[in-house]
Amino acid sequence: MRLDGKTAVVTGAASGIGRATAEALAQAGAHVFLGDIAxxxxxxxxxxxxxxxxxxxxxxxxxxxLASVESFKREAYARKxxxxxxxxxxxxxxxxxxxQNTPEFxxxxxxxxxxxxxxxxxxxxxxxxxxxxxxxxxxASDAGRVGxxxxxxxxxxxxxxxxxxxxxxxxxxxxxxNVNCVCPGPTDTPLLAAVPEKHRExxxxxxxxxxxxxxxxxADAVLFFASSRSDFITGQVLSVSGGLTMVG
Length: 248
Prior knowledge:
By secondary structure, the chain is an alpha/beta fold. Helices cover 48% and strands 15% of the residues. The chain has helices at 16-27, 39-51, 66-80, 103-131, 143-146, 152-172, 190-193, 197-206, 215-226; strands spanning 7-11, 31-36, 56-60, 85-88, 134-139, 177-184, 237-240. The protein has a 7-stranded parallel sheet, with helices on both faces. The chain is globular, with a radius of gyration of 17 Å. The two termini are 28 Å apart.
């Protein structure tokens, strides 16, 4: 799957699934703009990719801030002139009973996991419509498909991202824009590393393949949706969860 000549935006690209996605797209030949609030880690990720001869630039991005998204968009267009692929990967959550959540926690979870993809997608959509081409891939979660104990608001936000994907796919099909969604199960990321060990062990026990996913395995699914191999696929949700969820 080659992306030569393409330009991609990847949010949350400083670590975890976001970084793995940026690396996969760059290895396939795309020039990648890495966006994240973690400036040092993001810059180091881009530098590591350039050291391999790949096209990569880091631009600071806060997906919850419309002004930051607009600034990121302007800088990306100034450097390359076109963006062909948007990968919405930035997200965050924490396992906690719903009754212990604060309103501030709700807002943070919804802003990062639902409004962030909406903001970033909207920023780059006009040019894709004018070009009559584009690939938009949002990384949601299987929590948004089947629910998850202790992640009620997170699951709600990810479910919203899934519904947003399906609805936007219908709206933009006439412009030859493919909009799809990747739903990871428990994946070995820095975010999961902060989860108590007993929860990690429980995730492994209930996963048919008996292990955590790798960020690169989720990135491979994003790469598929970003490539020409998925040209006749839109509005779809692909779980990368080791069989944890099997939704008909």
